[in-house]
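Researcher: Let's continue the batch. This sequence belongs to DUF7482 domain-containing protein, and it's 396 residues. Same format as the previous ones, please.
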Amino acid sequence: MFHINFRAALRALVFAALPAAVMAQPSPGVFGPGPGCNVFPASASVGATVGLSYFGPPPSSTNPSLVGPVQLVKSGQIDEKAGTITMPLYRGTLNGSNKAVWFILTDVNDPELASLLGLNYSAKLNFAANGARNAWFDAQNNVVFDRGAVDFTPVRKVVAGSSAAPFPPSVAEPGSVGDDDYSPLIKLGSVVYNAPVVAFGVEAADINFPSGNVDYTKVHDEVVAIDTTEMTVTIQLVNGFSFGRPLWYMSTEASLSNVAAIEGATYAPRLQKLVTGRDDSFSSPVERLFIAVNGPSEDGCANPMRQGLYAALTDGYRPNNVFGGIPTIAPDYSPLWNGNLYEWTQTAVARGYRGQLREEFQILTYVQDGILTGPGGSKFGDSQFIVNCPPVQRLN
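Model: Same format as before. Here are the structure tokens for DUF7482 domain-containing protein:
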């Protein structure tokens, strides 16, 4: 029963509380107008008696599992002022039609290839074959995809819910739609790559926007620039947390069309074939993503405790979601995030307990203690959808 109600509720969530149905792209970036929409950490010199130049390098420069910034997807160039990443752009073709497939690479299930190519390593992708497409190399070693097309012509449309209850909203239509066979996951021999498509069925001259002003009827909604001469694409990043550490990630696909509209992502139906709800058990391809429904939203980005879907719908910025394990923190990482929605009980809200949560076991403990539930007081757990969200930079 809950699964049906959840899908109906998600028919229109967006990361912008605009009254118009047509949404601007890409989604708001990582630097909002206040602390509630900006997770970039302060300098270590704040409150000290010496300046930052007296401090040694962060411990993460010696051991990436220690405190300090770590770039995870090393193949890209992160712009810390803009909150974007510029990635290598690849051109493949679709088998049969020979249409152009423009894609990026973010993750792989082989640790040596991950190191060689500067990608995230994910052992869990070994269990994701049923949600993947097959691919092979042509004579020039360009990738040929066996199936799966994406239509980038739709305009993402959203109408929020009422001011008293922004979630659920009333309309959500994704800005790019994959056919029934589309998945960002591709299997090349025994290797599984995460290869999100950013443009399809167009040639280089049609999508060459190296300085921005992108035509979003031709490319992914989170692209801020694309250069088919230099073969790079610049993608908007999103704020989040993993075990208390702030991070930036990209959001590229979702397994349900309404969730894709929420994320500014491509609807990828084949991802729905993946098994959810098993977290870190044997054969699970996913890791959990924790999304607040009714977190603190008063005063918008000015509220340092800001979090959740109510906030995202009323102020137009991202909801500060909480991720499970990411590379350098845990070996159970997967870019395939299994959504787990949670809601603060009315008793907790009335007593002033509600705040910003930043790590998985804090959330699970509050569920155990009866402070958090699933949406509408339902049992907390698997919300039965997947979002493809590769983390690219751990900020601390």
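Researcher: Any comment?
Model: The chain has one domain: 2-24+69-394.
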